[in-house]
Structure formats: C-alpha cells, structure tokens
Design a protein that fits this description.
It contains 2 helices and 2 strands; from the N terminus they run αββα. By secondary structure, the protein is mainly alpha-helical.
C-alpha cells in the first residue's frame, strides 16, 4: 500500500515537472544544424544517458574485480 502511494506521488511529481518544462530549447550537436525540442525531452535524455554511463561503469568495475579475483 505504501509503495503504491509513493509510486503514485512520484508519478504525479513527474507529470507536474514535465508540464512545467514544455518550452522549446535549441540543442547544438557536434554535426548539423541546431535542433529545437521540448526541454523535458532534453532533461529526460540527459537522465537516461547518465543512468547508462553509471550502469556501464558498474559493469566494468565488476568485470575488473572478477578478473583480479580469478587471478588474471
């Protein structure tokens, strides 16, 4: 019950946050012209990229630790 309530509260917070960040923003990539997209997509993309980098780092550390433990 508590977990459901916290999940609902978190979803409501994300909905309010997303509705407040619908302004268009210009993104300059390395190649090509700048692209305009909603700010919430930029923020979401940054969060996903950060999560993926942290996950890859964790996997690499585990593999390195396992190799050291196995004696390679």
């Amino acid at each position: 019950m508590v977990k459901s309530f916290v999940s609902l509260l978190f979803a409501l917070f994300l909905l309010i946050f997303a509705s407040q960040n619908m302004d268009m923003a210009r993104v300059h990539f390395v190649f090509g012209p700048p692209v305009e997209m909603p700010l919430i997509l930029i923020i979401s993309g940054a969060v996903v990229c950060g999560f993926l980098l942290a996950h890859i780092n964790t996997l690499a550390r585990r593999a390195l630790r396992k190799r050291r433990k196995d004696g390679f």
